[in-house]
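=== RUN LOG ===
request id: a7f3
mode: sequence -> structure
chains: 1
length: 71
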Amino acid sequence: KLLETCRLRCKRAYQVETPQDVPAGVFGPQDHVAITAGASTPQWLLEQVRLAIEQDAAQASQKNTYPGEKP
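=== RESULT ===
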């Protein structure tokens, strides 16, 4: 239900449950990202997901490839 609600506002909404679920090559260095979670999701897990998103964006920046652009 949470993913459906997010997609009402943003088509680029993804459901991830672990840092390994963060899709590679989706986030660019200039993207704005919102992370939502249920009340039972531990803070440490949210932090790991945030770090995975930042690392993915940094890799895209180093390669000069961003979502929607051709390398």
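=== NOTES ===
Helices lie at 2-9, 43-63.
The chain has two helices and no strands.
=== END ===
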